[in-house]
Amino acid sequence: MIDPDEPYKIQIAKQAKIIEALINRAERGHEVGGSAYSLFESAIALQTEVWEKTKDLEKALDTLGRASSELEIAYQTQERIQRNLADAMVAMEDGFALFSEERLQVCNAQFRHLLADVEPLIRPGLGFDDYLAAVNASKYLNRDENGGISRPQALVTEQESGQRFSSFVMELRNDRWFQISYRQTSSGNITVLQTEITDIVRENRREKNRLIDQQAHFLQAAFDHMSLGICTFSSRGELLVRNERFGELLGVPLSLLKKGSPFQRIIEHVERHEILEHKGRRSKFAGWFKVMRRGETMQERCRRRDGMSLDIRIHSLPGDGFIVSIMDVTAETQAAALLEQRVQERTAELTEANRLLQIHAIEQIKIEAALRQAKEAAETAHTSKTRFLAAASHDLLQPINAAKLYLSMLTETAGQPGTEDVVGRLKRSFTSIETLLQALLDISRLDSPAAEFNITSFELGGLLQGLAGDLAPLATEKGIELRIVPSTRWVTSDQRYLMRCVQNLVVNAIQYTEGGRVLVGCRLRGNRLRIEVWDTGIGISEEDQTRIFNEFTRAGGAGKGTGMGLGLSIVERACRHLDHPVRLVSQPGRGSVFSIEVPLVAPGRASVCENPMMEQMLDGSLDLIVMVVENDADELHAMTQVLESWGASVLAAASTVDAAALMQEIGTAPDILLVDYQLDNGDNGIETIRTLRALAGIEIPAIIISANRQRQFLQLCNEMSFAVLNKPVQLVRLRALIDWKTRARVA
C-alpha cells in the first residue's frame, strides 16, 4: 500500500490515513447487537484483528521514523552544499550565474554589477533570453561598428546547430573588455561566466604597436639596403616610405621625397626637367597615376638622358595604395642588344645553311624517289618471278602428274620381260623431276616477303606414321633399317612445312647412309619437343657443318646423284620462319643427328582440313561414283583410267558447267568430287564444289587437287570442309583420302 520510493511526506500521509481507518473500524466494532455468544465471537475476532493491526501499525511507525531521519540528513546535506556554493561564488573574481530551465537561480555580486542598467533586472527567475536581450541593449557597450564586438547569441540557436558552448567578447565604453561564456550542462542547466580581459587586450594592443614599429624599422632598413629604388604611396597618392636609391635613379631632389609628398608632383618634376626620354609628342608618364587609381599594374622601360636604362614597375597594395620600384637595367639592356646582334648574325648564317639544306633535301628526295622506283621494280620482278614459278610449277606438274598416273597403270598391266625395269627407271626420273620442282617452289615461297604459314595444333603421331609409309620403300631399296618411334604428343606448327622438313632430314639420312639404320624419335625439353633423326652414315666434317644448309651444297665425300643439295636449305628457311631451332651433331665416319624443336600444346582436336593418316593401298573394289573435273585432257584421261582400275564409276568433266550438266543428266549426286583447282577461263575448283553442292542440295565430300598453299586458301578449305591434295598426286594418299572422306560421310 505504501511505495518506499515515494517522497517521505507522501508516505507519512498514507500511513496516517491507514491508522485513522483502523481506529474507525475498531470503534464500529463495539456497536454490536444480538446474543451474548455472538458478541463473544465478535469480541474474539475483533481482538485478533486488533493485534494484527497493532503489529502493522508498529512496523509503519518504525518505517516512518527511519524515513524522517533520512529526510533530516538530506536537508542538512542540501543546506551545506548551498552554503559551499554561496561561499565559492563570493570568492570568485569573475561573474557567475546558474540558469535552471532557462530561469536564473543564483548568481554572485560580480555578475550582478557588471552593467549598471542591467543590474535591476538581475533577480531570481530572470529568463536567459531576456538576460541576453538586456545585455545587447545596454548603453554601456561600445557600439562603434569598427570596434570588432561580437554580439551574444541566444542559446536556442546554439542547440539547433548542435553546439553546447558559446563565447563572445564585449567592449565597454570605458575601454574595458569582458568575455562572456555560457555552457549548457548535461542536466539542461545553463552556466554563465563573465571574465574581464581588459589587461590582456591592452597588452596585446601594446605588443601589436611594438611589432608594427619594429616591422616598419626593419622594412626601412631593408629598403635602404636594396639595389632597387623603392617608394610606397597611400591611396591618395601621398609618399609613405622610400629609400635613397629611389631618388638617385629617378634624379628627384630630396625636397620632393619627403613623407606626404604627392606622387603627381614627382611625375611633373620628371617631365618638366625631361629626366626620362619618351617617344612621341604626348608624355606617357602623365597616365601613370590614372592607371594606379584603377588598381592596374604598369611596367615601363625608360632611358635617362645620360644613357642609363631603367625598368619602372608599379603595383597596387592592399588598402588602395601602390608601390613603385625602379631598377638599373643598363647592363642587361646592353647585353640584350649584343645578344640580338649575335642572334641576327646567327639567323643569317642559319638561313643560308637552311637554304643549302633545302637544296640537299631536294636532291635527297630525288635520290629516294629513284631508290623507291628501283625497289618497286625489284619487288615487281620478284613478285613476277614468284608468280612465274608458281605458274610454271603448275604447268610442269600437270604433264608429270599425268605421266605418273600412266606409269602406275603401266606397272600394273605390263607383263613383258624388262618392261618393269624400264617403268621403274622412268618412275624414278619423274620422281626426281617432281622433287626438284617441289624444292624450287618451296624455296621461292620461303624467300618471298609475303610467305604465309598455316599454324595449327596437331598430333605428331599421324605425321610420323605417314612419313614411315612414304619412305619405307626408299630405305628398303638401299637395305637400311628405318625405325620411327611413335609419339602421341601435340605440337603447334605448320603441318605441311614441318612434315616436309622432317621428310628432308630422313631422306638425307637414308641417302648418306650406306649401311646400318636410321632412327626417328622425339625427346621432351621443357615446354618444347625435339624431333631427332639419327643415322649411322658417313657423317659431316666440322667445316661442312656451316655450309650444308646453303642451296645446291652437299657434304664432302657424298657420291654423285645422291641429292640436289636443296633439302637442308628448305629445312633452314622453313624452321627460321617458324621459329623452330635446328641443331646438328655429327662425327665423320660414325653418323649424324639432326633435330628440330617445336612448341608443345595440350591435346586437342585436329582441323578438318588436315590430311588423314596415310594408310597402305587399300585392297578391294572402289564401289563409288566419282566426279573428276580437270581441264587438262591427258591428266583427266589418266585419272579416269586409274579410278576405273580401282572399280569406281567415273564422271569426267573439264569445267564447272560441264560437271553441272553431267550431274543433272544422270539425275543423282556423285559420292565424291575430285576437282583440280586451276581450271580454264577464270574457273576454279572451289566454284565447282560450291555449284555442285548447291545443285545437289547436300554437302558432297570433295577433294581439291592444287599446288596452292596460301593461308586464305587453307582457311577456305576449313570452312567448306574439303580436303586438299598437292600435285603431283601420290596414288597411295589419293586412295586413302577417298576412303576416309566417303567413310566419314557414311558415319
Automatic annotation (TrEMBL):
Using the record's annotation, list all stretches that form the Histidine kinase domain.
391-602
Q: What Enzyme Commission number does this protein have?
A: 2.7.13.3
Q: Which UniProt keywords apply?
A: Kinase, Phosphoprotein, Plasmid, Transferase, Two-component regulatory system
Q: Which InterPro entries does the record cross-reference, listed alphabetically?
A: CheY-like_superfamily, HATPase_C_sf, HATPase_dom, His_kinase_dom, HisK_dim/P_dom, HisK_dim/P_sf, PAS-like_dom_sf, Sensor_HK_Regulatory
According to the UniProt record, list the residues that bear 4-aspartylphosphate: 676
Q: According to its UniProt record, which reaction does this protein catalyse?
A: ATP + protein L-histidine = ADP + protein N-phospho-L-histidine
Q: Does the keyword rRNA processing apply?
A: no
Query: Is Nucleotide-binding among this UniProt entry's keywords?
Result: no
Q: Where is the Response regulatory domain?
A: 625-742
Q: Which Pfam families match?
A: HATPase_c (PF02518), HisKA (PF00512), PAS_7 (PF12860), Response_reg (PF00072)
Which top EC class is given? transferase
Q: What is the protein named?
A: histidine kinase
Q: Per the UniProt entry, what species is this protein from, by scientific name?
A: Sinorhizobium chiapasense
The lineage is: Bacteria, Pseudomonadati, Pseudomonadota, Alphaproteobacteria, Hyphomicrobiales
